[in-house]
Amino acid sequence: MTAYEIKKQICEVGHKLYDRGFVAANDGNISVKVSDNEFYCTPTGVSKGDLTPDMIIRIDGKGNKLEGKLNPSSEIKMHLRVYQERPDVNAVVHAHPPVATAFTVAGVELDQYILPEAVLTIGNVPTCEYGTPSTMEIPDSLAPFIQKHDAFLLKNHGALTVGNTLQKAQFTMEEVEFNAVICKHARELGNVEEIPCEQLEKLMELRKKMQIPGRHPGCKKCKNLGTENCRCKHNGESHTCTCGKDAKPVDGDLVAEITKRVMAALNK
Fold it and tell me: What 3-state DSSP class applies to 265?
């Protein structure tokens, strides 16, 4: 795309964020990578609902302004940290989606796998430690999660999403908020039934077939996703399964008895 087309797309995303109530006043920021050391970003002090292409700023990898009448967002530091750590990322969106942000304020993790679409695209969304806006505290808070996730909740400070395209980063932000809304409603109704591990494995296989770009944490319950669906086999020792359920050890005699019964049934 031309420089103007990129700037126009940034504005369009900003307008959508504002119209959907994901930002208020001059909250939020958006950036797009155009080369290894060149980025377009939204300015500080301007409502995302009022953005026009001439307001978009071009900066270098250190945040220095290369082009533009206004000044870049003071929170561009967290965008640049993402670009430094994730060469596959070409766009970053920061907003304050109300329900997802409320999860961070309430100290509730957005980590339950309840919607297939959210499982496919984002998995569980980690909550980063609180950091003072406009400082390096927020970029540093991303460090533990940045290699395995494309969506992050910022404690008391909204959400950050990334993508190989600006549209992908925007869609991920929408998915985070929609997933949070459904989870909140389910909690209010009194119960949240998560998708079981064996179904999560099928979704992960589907993700591979669909070649969905970006990073994904995999199954949050089973560290060895795909290894016999979280069945417990730990050398006969009592343990707690990675699914979070207490499990009895699987010993040789039990396996032999199960095999004997299965074979008998097959021979009937």
Answer: helix
Sign of the dihedral through C-alpha 109, 192, 149, 226? positive
Segment holding 40, helix H or strand E: strand 38-41
Rounded Cα distance between 247 and 235, Å, is 13
Q: What is the largest CA-CA distance in the chain?
A: 82
Please choose, from the candidates 93, 113, 119, the residue with its C-alpha nearest in 3D space to the C-alpha of residue 28.
Answer: 93
Q: pLDDT tens-digit profile of 153-196?
A: 999 999 999 999 999 999 999 999 999 999 999 999 999 999 99
Euclidean distance between CA atoms 83 and 175, whole angstroms: 22
C-alpha to C-alpha distances, 221 to 111, 224, 235, 254, nearest whole angstrom = 10, 9, 20, 25
DSSP tag of 129: P
d(CA 29, CA 46): 10
Q: What is the DSSP string of 183-248?
A: HHHHHHHT---PPPHHHHHHHHHHHHHHT--S-----SS-TTTTSGGG---STT--EE-TTS-EE-
Quickly tell me which residue has 């304020």 as its tokens.
105
CA-CA distance, 44 to 74, in Å (whole number)?
7
For residue 65, the surrounding DSSP H or E stretch is strand 65-67
Fold of the 3-189 domain: L-fuculose-1-phosphate Aldolase (3.40.225)
* pTM > 0.85: yes or no: no
Question: Is residue 109 annotated as part of the catalytic site, yes or no?
Answer: no
Give the model confidence (pLDDT) of 66-84 as tens digits. Answer: 999 999 998 999 999 999 9
Catalytic residue among 38, 75, 117, 188: 75
CA-to-CA separations, 207 to 89, 121, 145, 175, in angstroms, rounded:
19, 8, 20, 16
